[in-house]
What does this fold into?
Amino acid sequence: MITLNECLSPHVVMAQRDHLRLERRKPYPVLARVRPVAWTCFCRATVYELCEGGGRAFIRRTIQRDDINEVQETFVGSIHEARAIWAALLSGRAR
It folds into this structure.
């Protein structure tokens, strides 16, 4: 079992009281070639990934369950927008 001291990827902090609520939907094949460029630690039940491809980007959220994983994604926007949302997510200003 991995302890928090052994994790290499960041963890999302608690959401702030006035955080931005991100709109999520089921995954859709909008980008033919997309790759995660940043992610949170897999030691938590909820994992976030910043995905980029073709000059566009979005945030993927995976809730790891025993039977099946639940995957949702934010809107597809510019890489600049997605990176700003990623920073807000990690700091608790978005969820």
